[in-house]
Write a structure and sequence with these properties.
Length: 83
């Protein structure tokens, strides 16, 4: 157990209200505040931004990302992506 995380969805639960990086199939990346998720790992992000080469490509706002398109979700910040 690391930081109270015993199951995979525990990490998502601990990340609610925080900024996350979501990598999708097709090489798309989004950064935003994790608002909600379900057992299928469908996620809702607020203040979502589509990223390309570490830079904001498009501001999207609130968005729903379908779980079967997600490769990984990681706690992140846009400042670390903009190096």
């Amino acid at each position: 157990m690391v930081n109270g995380i015993e199951r995979p969805l525990d990490l998502l639960n601990a990340s609610k209200g925080k900024e996350v990086l979501v990598q999708l199939k097709g090489d798309k990346q989004f950064v935003g505040t994790l608002v909600a998720f379900d057992i299928h790992v469908n996620v809702v992000l607020d203040n979502a931004k589509e990223m390309e080469n570490g830079e904001v490509k498009k501001n999207i706002g609130i968005t729903f990302l379908r779980g079967d398109t997600i490769i990984f979700i990681s706690p992140a910040s846009t400042t670390s992506l903009n190096k």
